[in-house]
Amino acid sequence: MTIRFDNVTYAYRRWNRPILTDFTYSLPAGLTVLLGPNGAGKSTLLKLAAGTVRPAHGTITLDDVPSTARSYRHAVGWLPQHVQPMPQLTAREYVAYTGWLKGMATSTAHEKAATALERVDLTEQAEVKTHRLSGGQLRRLGVAATLVHDTQVLLLDEPTAGLDPQQRRTFRNVLASLTDQVRILMSTHDTQDLAEEADHVTVLRAGRILHTGTSKEFLAHTPASVAPGRAAEAAYTAILNRDGNASG
Ligand SMILES: Nc1ncnc2c1ncn2[C@@H]1O[C@H](COP(=O)(O)OP(=O)(O)OP(=O)(O)O)[C@@H](O)[C@H]1O
């Protein structure tokens, strides 16, 4: 099951310049990292894919189901940049409540919540009130909430921003463990982190795809003299520079 953008054009206001124009993209299997400078259109792309905003032209589909359909929004989970705790709820109740909001029976929502928490490695925190969770645990709680209703595609907007290195590692490991069942598109500014877990990399600038391919193909852009620890950052810079030179 994958999300396809076909000739999508989107502007925030009818009279504004479009952020995406005639944009075509198909989300590959596994974990895809979405890179791009500030204002490239990453969040806009994720919001369109989540069905929270609609294109002016073109179509966004999940195996032929349009993004306007209820079944589309059930199959696609979107994690915004900030996960708000609900102080009165435990982690388990929070996830079950999300399932209930999506139309699940209360008993099913509780059952599915336990499985979703297990998938993000939060079983031990199931009875902890959400405002007592750490920043990294809160992000994983957000992922559990999006997984509770049998999500096929997970969209994450800078989920590792503000996390310390240990929390980022745990978060990435959790994402990597989900990719056998869920396709994931994750935006980030954390270029170096991605080299470890991403299957694919897409680079966006000014609403255009500069590069999309496997991580190996992405890293092949690394200049020869660069130390391995800097490879992803250097590959990203090389792709941006190549485009800058071509369009300049
Ligand atoms: N609600 C909005 N109304 C009008 N313009 C917007 C709105 N949200 C974003 N934009 C504009 O759309 C463009 C793309 O923004 P978007 O947030 O998608 O980029 P981004 O790649 O996610 O950036 P960042 O890395 O800074 O989060 C920017 O020029 C931004 O100013």
TrEMBL record:
PROSITE patterns annotated for this entry?
A: ABC_TRANSPORTER_1, ABC_TRANSPORTER_2
Keyword annotations of the record: ATP-binding, Nucleotide-binding, Transport
Pfam families in UniProt: ABC_tran
On the tree of life, the source organism's domain of life is: Bacteria
Q: Which PANTHER family match?
A: ABC TRANSPORTER ATP-BINDING PROTEIN ALBC-RELATED
Query: Would you tell me the protein name for this molecule?
Result: ATP-binding cassette domain-containing protein
Q: Does the keyword Transport apply?
A: yes
The UniProt record lists the ABC transporter domain at: 3-231
| Record InterPro entries | AAA+_ATPase, ABC_transporter-like_ATP-bd, ABC_transporter-like_CS, ABC_Transporter_VariousFunc, P-loop_NTPase
Question: Which is one GO molecular function term here?
Answer: ATP binding
Does Nucleotide-binding show up as a keyword for this record? Answer: yes
